[in-house]
Amino acid sequence: MFSLLLTVFIASIVAMLVMVIRKAIAIRGLPHTPAKPFILDATPHPHRIRSFIKEISKEGVHIILLTFSRGFLFIAKEWRTMLKKHFPKTYSVLYGQPVIGEKSTSSFFLATITEYKEKTKRLRERITSEEPKIRKPRAAKTVKEIRDDDLIM
Q1: Taking the mean position of all CA atoms in its chain, how far away is CA 107?
Q2: Cα–chain center distance at 114
Q3: Quick check: helix, strand or coil at residue 76?
Q4: 65 has which bridge partners?
Q5: How far apart are alpha carbons 120 and 126 in whole angstroms?
Q6: Are 77 and 95 in contact (CB under 8 A)?
Q7: Cα–chain center distance at 102
Q8: Cα(57)–Cα(114) distance, rounded to whole angstroms?
Q9: What's the angle, vertex CA 141, arms to CA 137 and CA 146, rounded to 5?
Q10: Using CA of residue 114, residue 118, residue 124, residue 125, what is the dihedral sign?
Q11: Would you state the pLDDT for residue 9?
């Protein structure tokens, strides 16, 4: 860290010496003065101005769209909470979801499928509870007879 600071310090002293020497040469009027100025012309070119304006306008449009979308989402959320708090019946009609038992589903199709699955599960449970449990006998293992022809010596 110290070496970096020392390097920067020495570089700045050298730069100041160069500036002082150049000024002294310019004051004396010696012929060693450069024809071009040391500092470049800082006037921007038209194509740079156009590209800068395009970048700024793109960023501005992006910020405006983000602000409007976030504002819309915030207003929608507040609207729903206000409607749910003050008008629960209207909220349930507008935003309510079909409820089956204790579970809620997102669409009517899924609700009917879930209902059919529950009914078939209950029906299977009822059938298995009413039927006596009959065990199927296990198949007895048969021993394969070995013939003399099968033996090879």
Answers
A1: 26
A2: 32
A3: helix
A4: none
A5: 10
A6: no
A7: 32
A8: 52
A9: 160
A10: positive
A11: 87
pLDDT in tens, 127-152: 888 776 666 666 666 666 666 666 66
- Our separate counts of H helices and E strands in the chain read 4, 2
Q: Which two tokens stand for residue 80?
A: 């729903």
Percent of the chain past pLDDT 70, that is, above it, reads: 67
Q: Tell me which amino acid residue 105 is.
A: T
Nearest to 96 by CA among 84, 114, 79: 84
Side chain identity at residue 65, one-letter code: L
Q: Which residue has the tokens 């060693």?
A: 32
SS3 45: coil
Distance set, CA 65 to CA 59, 68, 71 (Å)? 10, 5, 10
